[in-house]
Write a structure and sequence with these properties.
This protein has about 230 residues and is α/β, with parallel strands linked by helices. About 40% of the residues lie in helices and about 15% in strands. It has 8 helices and 6 strands; from the N terminus they run ααβαβαβαβααββα. It has helices at about 5-25, 30-35, 60-70, 85-100, 110-125, 150-155, 160-170, 215-230, and strands at about 45-50, 70-75, 105-110, 130-135, 175-185, 200-205. Strands 2-1-3-4-5-6 form a 6-stranded parallel beta sheet, sandwiched between helices. Helix 3 links the parallel strand 1 and strand 2. It starts with a helix and ends with a helix.
Length: about 230
């Protein structure tokens, strides 16, 4: 059990990390031009789904890592900062999958992005295009802190929200989801475990910082490799 001082320190580092990457997201990123240069060794088509108020650039460290590992990494710029509802954003990603004609795609999602991915897999007509999802720091049962948020888009992540409850009750795709999360997540006090899914708790602290942690990168790559071999 973490002491209050350790928790406060983890909160502070997480916000510093998030703030730094929000600033970096304002500048052009080169990854979009690099994403199609490794075609001869691609093993998986990966589609990134960022969390709420995050652009795809927030996941840039993980995207570059997966690209260098030989995977074809796709971003969905039209998601913007992911401010829409889960069903709305699910349809945006579904449209992208259809237009790109992707099959057996792997969703790699952060936070709210995991809810969007599950909705896409379970409720969209394009769900058949997704083989599985790796969800990072996703509040599948909502976050108790969200109910106090001043913004409606954040309150929609509350455990009592109708959309969250309905999605949590749908178990149809859980077996194809890998949920990876920190042992202490400052923003999701209830944890990120998902019934019927593969749940992986890393010895890390943080909600945002986890995205650039070597242990997270290795876990994602391991599960991509094992599924490809199978």
């Amino acid at each position: 059990m973490l002491q209050r001082g350790e928790q406060a320190f983890a909160w502070g580092l997480d916000y510093l990390y998030a703030g730094a990457w929000q600033l970096r997201a304002l500048f052009p990123a080169r990854f979009a031009k690099q994403s199609a240069t490794n075609a001869e060794v691609q093993t998986e088509h990966i589609v990134l789904i960022p969390g709420i108020w995050e652009s795809w650039k927030f996941m840039l460290p993980l995207a570059r890592y997966l690209h260098q590992a030989g995977h074809s990494v796709h971003v969905v710029p039209i998601l913007g900062y992911n401010r829409g509802t889960v069903p709305e954003m699910s349809e945006v990603v579904a449209k992208f999958l259809a237009e790109a004609d992707l099959h057996e795609a792997v969703l790699v999602a952060h936070s709210k992005g995991g809810l969007i991915g599950k909705h896409l897999m379970a409720a969209s007509t394009q769900g058949y295009r997704v083989s599985r999802m790796i969800a990072i720091s996703t509040p599948f049962s909502g976050s108790g802190y969200a109910r106090y948020a001043p913004i409606r888009s954040l309150r929609a992540l509350s455990p009592n929200d109708t959309g969250v409850l309905k999605l949590a009750a749908n178990l149809s795709v859980n077996a194809r989801i890998i949920s990876i999360f920190s042992r202490f997540d400052p923003h999701i006090p209830g944890g990120c475990e998902l019934a019927g899914a593969t749940n992986i708790k890393l010895e890390t602290m943080g909600h945002f910082r986890l995205l650039n942690d070597e242990r997270l990168k290795n876990a994602v790559r391991k599960h991509l490799s094992s599924a490809s071999s199978a």
